[in-house]
Specification:
heterotrimer; A mainly alpha; B alpha/beta; C alpha+beta; B: GMP Synthetase, Chain A, domain 3; 2 domains; 8-stranded mixed β-sheet; 14 strands; C: alpha+beta; disordered N terminus; disordered C terminus; membrane (chain B); palmitate (chain B); Spore germination protein KC (chain B); lipoprotein (chain B)
Chain lengths: 373, 380, 523
């Protein structure tokens, strides 16, 4: 097995930033619709439930990672499950990330082609995005951490500003009733759908061994989870208060429509939705490149390669083909639903099983010493 | 190998960069500022026997902006659908039509009576259209409004938006834009409304509020009625005034009041499977002018005026509510949303369209006079 | 090989051969023979002076003073070397003493210059003579004296022209290495200040001084810089730019990775932060390493003015940089892709201005930016006297004429003017060069994909910047990796008394600013 030196390459703040940027991606653009799709006004509860579920899963993964402080998930999978089964599961995780990344890029390109560049072929938009993503994934993990850190606020501030301003046109009466008149089943169904926009936190399974101060990883992991969760809840509340549940279900890109309905204090620019999408490129690009980094890293570890870089380049054409595979937006959304179900299962069940296995092993076998620097 | 990849990437980039599918220069488009949609004139309509629409657009001529003459160009075209008519328009133009700057969409009353959803679909589907554009109903034809020539602004659509925005900020005109119209169309608990206009050559007049049932125009509230409608929903008022007169025959008792602060509380109550809608209105008013010599320094006089305001407002508001309940039978107030919010179980059982005309509505108005103006009457 | 000729590889080999020859040559004990050897090595150059005279006017002890005319101070030669050797030295001194005693006598009692030493090797002697010292050869000694006699005409200290400030010292570095180091010493009476000398350039043998404060600067960085400078193989070093290009980390990046300054106060300020200054003889530009992007919009004046004003000025500078980086690209994106973003009336007036313009907006932008670049380049090479005239002709007349003729739109002229002026808000020249290059790349991207292209370009730029390093220091510190302590001196400059710590990015030994002298008691 190839040992890549992993000590102290990512600061805790960068660790948070990576979590934030990976979670905040394409999900939040459709989240308001997904949240109310079954649950109507209780969509807010669904989103909160989804975010709490993601927190639990995140903590389990961090806990698991701390048991093997210098190993990525792909390495301790092989320890816990044996070499062959471990590699199979690793391969499965990589495939899931791969499809996820491809669809994230496709979804966003779809939005760009609908709203910003209607005549540009979607292939071109995807290629440009892929090249950009590959450019970052090709670099080292330190650069990845720095870029993420740099962009955290550029991603957070526009969406925060947008939601605060959009409340001006909102009617709080549209938000009610949150707690009454909804069946639990529907709320849970919406939770499942909303969970998609929280996916991405599982990237910690790759990043954790690189963090400088392992003791702080839980604290900063929670910080990294908190910001996207708060943003998601605010965006959902704002969207419901502006559109109402019934209109929201009609909107393909609710967050995008939210900007279109918001009056900004007129600067030189009147309509900021294009500018918003342009800045949202950053959020999306960080998600995709973090995941691609994870894929390449994992692939390198499974295939016993020395560098993740070679894989990044060879995966690009595949990603391109995958991103283009859905024929239209509806097929894409259906596929995304399937991916999010797979993601739900994968990030909920697998870490628990692994943690239990690790606990059993930890008792019987060698104790794993905690890193304390 | 690495060099080959690099060269490939460079070639790819060159290819990508040389293509510029979406580039069109700002002057090489025809920005549409206003769209008017009418039925085709009566006689033609009889001949063809189909619902052909006539789309009139207003296009600015940027090159003439400096001189200030001939700044807009108005052209129209006929088609089976809005999209078809716009396609026909495109055939007459040298450059591509661009709807990103669309300010107003005007429908004639006739077309609105048949339901405007099918005509709005074109605008709803296009990502270029702003949700903050105005959807307006013309009392006669939309073309008249598009063709009107107001004096203060060379481009009529911009004049119109300024007029409407100003009306909104002072509380005269309800803030119902295209996006709000869509929302109200989808929401079962409230019905759509739109601002109604009338044009006469140079003058564009705001005449009230068009009331819809679903997407069909069913009638309108006139200007004073809209004023009370607005106050009921708690929109503060900056310029519209309330004239109080105890005795209409004598002018002596007349008072003009300005409602500066209005706050309303809508509270539905479910009693024996019947909804009672309670409206509590709190008004802070200012006396603008009075023709008698009431001493506003005296507390009882102020109280008396306050009572008069309350009575007047309650009477008028009840009248408007009555009109919507019995005449139009549509809930333009959004009471249904309150019922849905507070009694979701009850809401799921009923059909609000049927229920709304039957519900009881109780209005309660509380008025306070805060400012009495600068004339001191106590001295006499 | 042609390539070798250009890069000078061959020359270096030749030099090495020459060097071996010189190294082999030793000194004879006869003045005549030594003179011949030296003439052989140095050639018949008209500025090399061989002054023959007799020690103590004794014909049996000839001596020779060899120096380069113009590099030496004739007063020193006349009054402190030749005169004492002729008159103060007595004939008995020569006859009664052995040759060793004579040497001691000359160095200790006769020659009155401040520096004199003996040297055995011919190559060292010649280098000394070529750098302005004089060589004294006496009969019977197979060594030579090197007597300090440097003295040549140099530009006097004047105000720096490239970095002007309103408030702050007016003196600038000059071409003289010693003057420059003395500038720094004068401001920094710290015993920890180290001045390490190196000579670089196989032929030019340019003196280079590396300055840092022991106990403050990170020793690893100092070692790294020393090693990189020592490994430079080049014919000559004419300017600090030579050094910069040899030791920077990423030569193909548009961003400068070393700072250069003409201002001693700036150099000292950076030394106090734990950085290293590289002074090169023959140029007033002193290099400062490592450099992060952050510093390029800092001016030394920032620390002399009051904190609120400075923070405001820095915000202005950043806005200026942003404008000069992205405004033309934004203009292209807005006028040819997303004009719905502009308010209607504004969009119409831009469209009105563009109605007569024959070129599409992106070509218009490229044309105007190109013209500005030509003007800018021309104005650099113009003599100062006509420079301003050309500026007026180029800027005003060309601009107005172009607008009047309907070749460009008025909005474009405003954009170009803002762009150019914005690029001068950066106090450092080198960073505005980087931005000039990137501006055109962003314009290309924006003219293909509008705002999407612009943002993609900006992201790619920032990835590149995040991956840059200057001597191991990430280029974007203190933003990424973020260091809260360092952020006190970023866009917002905290009051001086709040900035208690040296930049953590340097990983200095003494992080607390005031405790520089108590070495090592911190951490």
């Amino acid at each position: 097995m190839i040992k890549i030196k992993k000590e102290g390459k990512v600061t805790e703040r960068q660790f948070s930033a990576i979590i934030i940027n990976t979670i905040l991606g394409v999900g939040i653009l459709t989240l308001p619709r997904e949240a109310v799709s079954f649950a109507d006004n209780a969509g807010i509860i669904s989103v909160i439930l989804a975010s709490l579920l993601s927190l639990i899963n995140l903590l389990i993964i961090i806990r698991l990672g701390l048991k093997y402080p210098d190993k990525t998930i792909f390495e301790y999978l092989q320890i816990l499950l044996g070499k062959i089964l471990g590699k199979i599961i690793s391969f499965f995780i990589i495939c899931y990330w791969f499809v996820f990344t491809a669809f994230v890029i496709r979804t966003f390109s779809e939005l760009i082609v609908t709203a910003v560049l209607p005549k540009t072929p979607i292939e071109v938009v995807i290629i440009i995005m892929l090249l950009l993503v590959a450019y970052l994934s090709y670099k080292d993990i330190q650069v990845l951490g720095r870029v993420n850190e740099l962009y955290v606020f550029i991603v957070i501030i526009p969406i925060l500003l947008l939601t605060i301003l959009s409340f001006k046109r909102g009617h709080m009466i549209y938000v009610l009733p949150v707690f009454r008149g909804h069946s639990m089943v529907n709320i849970l169904k919406s939770t499942g759908r909303s969970y998609f926009s929280f996916l991405g936190f599982e990237i910690v399974a790759i990043i954790l061994p690189f963090i400088t101060t392992k003791k702080l990883s839980i604290e900063y992991g929670i910080k990294g989870w908190l910001i996207p969760s708060i943003l998601s809840v605010i965006v959902v509340i704002a969207s419901i208060s502006v559109f109402g549940v019934f209109e929201l279900k009609n909107l393909v890109w609710p967050t995008f429509e939210l900007i279109k309905s918001t009056q900004f204090f007129a600067l030189i620019f009147e309509r900021l939705e294009v500018a918003f999408i342009a800045t949202w490129v950053i959020a999306l690009f960080t998600t995709a490149s973090n995941l691609l980094f994870g894929i390449a890293m994992g692939g390198a570890q499974i295939l016993n390669l020395h560098k993740h870089k070679t894989l990044v380049l060879s995966l690009l054409p595949l990603l391109y083909l995958f991103a283009l595979s859905p024929r239209n937006a509806y097929e894409l959304f259906n596929l995304v639903d399937i991916v999010s179900i797979v993601g739900l299962i994968l990030t909920t069940i697998l870490p628990i099983i692994l943690l239990i296995l690790a606990e059993i092993r930890g008792k019987g076998g060698k104790a794993i010493d905690e890193e304390s620097n | 190998m690495k060099k080959v990849i690099k060269i490939m990437i460079i070639v790819l980039l060159m290819n990508l960069l040389s293509g510029c599918w979406d580039r069109r220069d700002i002057e090489a488009t025809v920005p549409v500022l206003g769209v008017g949609i009418d039925f085709i004139e009566e006689e033609d309509r009889d001949l063809t026997k189909s619902n052909k629409v006539k789309v009139t657009i207003q296009v600015p001529i940027p090159a003439n902006m400096e001189q200030g003459e001939d700044v807009v160009w108005i052209i129209s075209s006929v088609g089976e659908t809005v999209a078809g008519a716009i396609d026909n328009l495109q055939n007459k133009l040298n450059q591509e039509l661009f709807f990103g700057h669309l300010q107003v969409i005007i429908f004639s009353q006739d077309i609105a009576k048949e339901g405007i959803n099918k005509y709005l679909n074109f605008f709803r589907n296009s990502p270029q259209i702003r949700r903050l554009s105005w959807l307006l109903i013309a009392e006669d034809t939309a073309e008249d409004i598009i063709k009107s020539e107001p004096k203060l602004e060379s481009i009529q659509s911009i004049y119109l938006t300024h007029m409407l925005n100003n009306g909104v900020s002072t509380g005269r005109i309800p803030d119902i834009r295209l996006g709000d119209f869509f929302i109200r169309l989808s929401n079962p608990g409230e019905q759509a409304t739109a601002v109604m206009l009338k044009a006469d050559k140079e003058i564009i007049d705001y005449i009230g509020l068009a009331v819809f049932e679903g997407d069909e125009f069913v009638g309108s509230l006139d200007q004073p009625e809209t004023l009370y409608y607005q106050r009921t929903l708690g929109v503060p008022n900056d310029t519209s005034n309330l004239v109080l007169a105890c005795d209409p025959t004598t002018e002596i008792d007349r008072l003009t009041i300005k409602m500066q602060e209005v706050s309303s509380k809508l509270q539905p109550e479910l009693k024996e499977d019947k909804i009672i809608m309670k409206i509590k209105l709190k008004v802070e008013a200012k006396v603008l002018e009075q023709l008698n010599k009431n001493n506003l320094g005296r507390e009882d006089v102020v109280h008396q005026i306050e009572r008069r305001i309350e009575n007047k407002l309650k009477r008028e508001i009840d009248k408007v509510i009555e009109k919507t309940q019995s005449k139009f039978q549509t809930d333009i107030w959004g009471f249904g949303e309150y019922v849905r919010a507070y009694y979701p179980e009850y809401w799921n059982k009923i059909k609000w369209e049927e229920e709304f005309p039957k519900i009881k509505i109780s209005t309660e108005v509380k008025a306070y006079i805060r400012q009495v103006g600068m004339i001191n009457f106590t001295g006499r | 090989m042609f390539w070798d000729k250009i890069t000078g590889k061959k020359n270096i080999e030749n030099i090495e051969e020459d060097k071996k020859e010189i190294n082999k040559v030793g000194l004879e004990d006869s003045v005549r023979k030594n003179e011949e050897i030296i003439k052989d090595l140095i050639g018949e150059s008209s500025d090399v002076v061989f002054r023959k005279f007799n020690l103590a006017k004794d014909e049996e002890s000839p001596a020779m003073l060899i120096y380069i005319d113009g590099l030496t101070n004739t007063d020193i030669l006349n009054l402190h070397i030749i005169k004492p050797l002729l008159s103060d030295l007595k004939e008995e001194d020569l006859t009664e003493n052995s040759i060793e005693e004579q040497v001691d006598l000359i160095t200790e009692s006769i020659v009155t210059t401040h520096e004199i030493k003996l040297e055995k090797k011919m190559d060292k002697l010649i280098t000394a003579a070529l750098s302005g010292d004089s060589i004294l050869l006496i009969e019977g000694l197979s060594q030579g004296f090197i007597i300090a006699s440097k003295g040549w005409d140099a530009r006097s200290i004047s105000e720096p022209t490239t970095e002007s400030v309103i408030r702050g010292p007016r003196d600038g570095f000059t071409e003289n290495l010693r003057t420059n180091t003395s500038h720094i010493r004068r401001r920094l009476r710290d015993p920890g200040l180290r001045v390490k000398g190196v000579a670089v350039g196989e032929r030019s043998k340019t003196d280079i001084a590396i300055l840092y404060i022991e106990g403050v600067a990170n020793p690893h960085i100092v070692d790294e810089i020393m090693n990189r400078i020592k490994s430079i193989k080049v014919d000559g070093v004419l300017e600090s730019g030579y050094i910069e290009q040899f030791i920077e980390d990423s030569p193909f990046s548009p961003f400068p990775q070393l700072q250069h300054t003409e201002r001693p106060d700036k150099a000292v300020g950076n030394l106090l932060e734990g950085k290293v200054a590289i002074v090169v003889d023959g140029t007033p530009f002193v290099l400062i390493a490592p450099a992060v992007f952050e510093q390029f919009y800092h001016s030394p004046e920032d620390y002399y003015n009051r904190t609120v004003i400075v923070s405001l000025l820095r915000v202005v500078r950043v806005i200026g940089l942003m404008i000069s980086l992205a405004l033309p690209a934004l203009y292209i994106a807005l006028t040819s892709f997303h004009f719905e973003m502009l308010p209607t009336v504004f969009a119409l007036s831009i469209a009105g201005g563009r109605a007569q313009v024959p070129l599409p907006a992106y070509l218009e932008a490229f044309l105007m930016e190109g013209i500005i670049e030509i003007l800018r380049e021309a104005s650099v090479h113009l003599p100062n006297v006509i420079g301003s005239t050309i500026g007026i002709v180029g800027g005003l007349i060309l601009g107005t004429a172009a607008v009047d003729a309907g070749l460009v739109s008025p909005a474009m002229v405003i954009v170009v003017a803002l762009t150019t002026i914005g690029s001068f808000t950066a106090p450092t020249y080198s960073v505005s060069n980087a931005i000039r290059i990137l501006r055109f790349i962003l314009m290309i991207l924006a003219s293909s994909f509008g705002l999407y292209g612009l943002v993609v370009g900006l992201i790619a730029t920032s990835i590149h910047m995040a991956s840059l390093k200057s001597f191991g220091i990430p280029y974007l510190t203190p933003y990424a990796p973020s260091r809260l302590e360092d952020l006190k001196d970023s866009i917002i400059r905290f009051p001086l008394w709040k900035m208690n710590f040296r930049p953590t990015l340097m990983r200095t030994k003494n992080s607390k600013r005031e405790e520089a002298k108590e070495e090592g008691d911190k951490n």
